[in-house]
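Sample pair:
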Amino acid sequence: MANDHIFALIDCNNFYASCERVFNPSLNNKPVVILSNNDGCVIARSQEAKDLGIEMATPAYKNKALFTKHNVNLFSSNYALYGDLSARVMDVISNFSPDIEIYSIDESFIELSGFKNRDLTEYGREIKATVEKWTGIPVSVGIAKTKTLAKIANHIAKKKKYYKGVFNLLDIEDINQVLVQVPVSKIWGIGRQYSHFLNKNNIVTALDLIQANDEWISKYLTSLGHQTVLELKGTSCIDMNSIDPPKKGIVSSKSFGKAVNTLSELEEAVSTYINIACNKLRKQHSVAQYISVYISTNRFKDTPQYNNNASIRFLSPTAYTPDFIQASLVILKR
């Protein structure tokens, strides 16, 4: 475990809604809601829509009166557009550090250990301003000694207007003053079930968690819980993804933290994984002509099982993210 890391997490603000605003600036400061491809459910919201009380994953018809009353701007999801703008954002961010890890379609970590002689808060502001200028997508930047703390710093940068979108935990003398304000439910790596469990045991904030008995943490939260505590204390346990040699094939896959029951949820997930794979493809200066999508149910659950896969071959090799996203969505609907 290394203790001399400095990480920045750059996270796009209300990414899908921001993408729609790039091509329609008249939407700025107006409520925007993104619906699943069949316009069935809410899958993304602008801050203005959140402030109206519009919740994620709710059926559109249940919000019809609210949409009408507040002139909410509705859009069907456009994953090709989101993937393309995500690629642009990540390309801009890569100019600020040679060590970048794309974590999802709208956020990435960069390593800033080699920039210790710079004013990192100011550097974060430069990153934010450049991304917004070159892509039109607003971002928040959180800087800290560990990835887990960088996540917390980013959350603060996004929620507290005083910091204007950039928060550097390295500038805080007593980090406990920050951790006492962070609910355990907001800690990276602490899921909903663990959050409820911790609350029942009077561990409500991040500060409560780092002050808990180590043996208790190891017993009830396993090694991952202990790792999270170490990260909150400033010891880096989660390194950047190592750089692999060029590959003939690239796989981007992940298990879901909760049951996925709708096509729109699958489309969003597949679009995210395609974006990650395409970034890896371009990073090794390669192109591809073949894409395969596979899905399966949880084989560890005593429920009806399903698994399937399908593929598409392009007429010519490409590394263009929207091409792959459009192909993957066609595959999903087969």
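Strands lie at 7-12, 32-35, 42-45, 73-76, 100-104, 107-111, 139-144, 166-168, 288-296, 307-318.
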